Automatic annotation (TrEMBL):
Domain of life: Bacteria
Domain CRISPR-associated protein Cas6 C-terminal span(s) in chain numbering: 155-265
Gene3D superfamilies to which the protein is assigned, alphabetical: 3.30.70.1890, 3.30.70.1900
Record protein name field: CRISPR system precrRNA processing endoribonuclease RAMP protein Cas6
């Protein structure tokens, strides 16, 4: 489903990232398919405020949300104890979604939430920039004016990141895969006036420190890379656009399954 098929979503300039603080209500091993459940829970909160909107957003190809897995300490074998705290982060690529999502959370209230039969309680919801390390806001028009970082751009991949390449999965974040993914999402959700042309990326990997890591999902483990990569773009115009997209990655994530915990990414500041 394309964005222009959603009458509720007008063209929007705003970007948001919110954080939901959860507390485990019992001890035990976290479920294998928890990342799919966190995605479903965000959709439920959206639907609480606007059932039609929640259904439509769920069906958009390249959803206007990036959703983390549960961020927080885990013991051996994914074991947690009652009282352990976690953060669920949602990046919102279309400003019209922030109000219904917060309204859905308000309707739910602080208290119990169950994901894959594992109970948590909502301790706090953070939406104001500066209120929590995982919270932020910006505008496409502001990012489009981001000061240049020069030829070198370093990205940190905070959760397993991978890409669909033909019929295979590529876990190494090559420049054309990373910035091609970001460009596609930018052009899908940014105001039309800020869209970029199709780019044949000629950036290259200058340095990296990566390892492969798996996220457990219902259909089996999903492998991706975590760590950092330094990219170099010799062409000044490509470097300028890559810099804008690197800032955008904070909200959008990179690669596959960004609404299910994969591809959480941020620009590494010098």
């Amino acid at each position: 489903m394309e964005l222009d098929m959603l009458p509720q979503l007008s063209e929007s300039d705003n970007l948001h990232a919110i954080a939901i603080q959860l507390v485990a209500s019992k001890q035990g091993a976290l479920p294998r398919n928890l990342n799919r459940a966190t995605h479903a829970q965000i959709m439920t909160w959206l639907s609480n405020a606007d059932p039609e909107l929640g259904s439509q957003v769920h069906n958009i190809q390249g959803a206007p949300l990036s959703i983390s897995g549960l961020i927080g300490h885990r013991r051996k074998k994914n074991f947690v104890k009652a009282g352990d705290e976690f953060t669920l982060r949602a990046g919102i690529l279309h400003g019209d979604l922030i109000s219904p999502l917060l309204k859905g959370l308000e309707n739910h209230g602080l208290g119990k939430v169950v994901m894959v039969d594992f109970p948590f309680s909502i301790k706090a919801i953070y939406a104001m920039p500066g209120s929590h390390p995982h919270v932020g806001s910006s505008q496409y028009s502001l990012l489009a004016k981001a000061p240049s970082l020069g030829q070198d751009i370093t990205l940190e991949f905070l959760s397993p990141t991978s890409f669909k390449q033909d019929q295979h999965i590529q876990p190494f974040p090559l420049a054309h895969s990373v910035f091609g993914s970001l460009l596609k999402r930018w052009n899908t959700f940014a105001p039309e006036a800020l869209a970029f042309p199709k780019i044949q990326w000629n950036g290259w990997v200058a340095a990296y420190d990566l390892k492969t890591k798996a996220i457990r999902m219902e259909g089996g483990p999903q492998i991706g890379s975590v760590g950092w990569v330094k990219y170099n773009f010799p062409d000044p115009e490509q470097a300028r656009i890559a810099n804008i997209l690197a800032h955008f990655a904070y909200f959008a994530g990179v690669g596959r399954k960004t609404a299910m915990g994969m591809g959480q990414t941020r620009l590494k500041q010098r």
